[in-house]
Amino acid sequence: MLAAALLLAALGLLAHGWSTKRSAAARIAWAFRGSSASRPRATLGWALGIALMYGATTLAALALLGRFDALTVLPVELRAAATHLGVAPLRIDAVAEIAWSIGGGFVLGAIAVIVMARRGWLRLGLMYRSPAVATNRREAGAAVLLATAAGVGEELFFRLLIPLLVAIVSGSGVAGCAVGWATFALAHRYQGALGMAAVAIVGAVLAWLYLATGLLWLVILLHTLVDANALVLRPWLEKLARPRPAQ
User: Fold this and answer.
1) Which residues contact 130 (CB under 8 A, 6 or more apart)?
2) Which helix (H) or strand (E) holds 165?
3) What's the pLDDT tens digit per position in 206-246?
4) What is the pTM of this model?
5) Cα–Cα distance between 184 and 208 in angstroms, integer?
């Protein structure tokens, strides 16, 4: 069965990266970087690697399945999962309320970062800090592209492709969503236990939002904003708010 073969290939791609401790995205990133020590080039390499590993893989699999419609319409298999999980469809006005809530959350988060930076509470060493964090304008552009690649590629792969393939093979959309959520969290194991826990929570929220709205572009946008906040906005606010040493 084609779906089963594609599922094995997708999971095998992930498993190979986990077993060798270097994913296909990492290999592409290192090949793109070459001998260059440029941080922006390294970040662009990661963006390219993620886009090819997750985004291109998903598009190729959907083409083979003849399911390109899944890019714009919630697949019937996942719609059944939403029903079984009791996820009620959201009205347009509810989606707008969620957007305002998310915007408010970003504002409150920005305020919290400024306060914590001024008080020196940010260097606790508990949360993972990406090496792609932007430290200047040149790096910021590459970091935004990385955030976009991750938002598009990872949502296509973990929120759509893996759940869809598992649902087709197993007959259970709920199992598909569970596997998609688990593999999404495991793919971020390099962030440590605390980082994986945070990613698992974010993944659960994104999965719920996707099932409730059927809008893949919406969860892609939210994922991109979350990553851009971590790679660009928060570091900039930290630098801006950090007390300068006395002259």
Assistant:
1) 230, 231
2) helix 162-170
3) 999 999 999 999 999 999 999 998 898 888 877 776 666 55
4) 0.88
5) 14
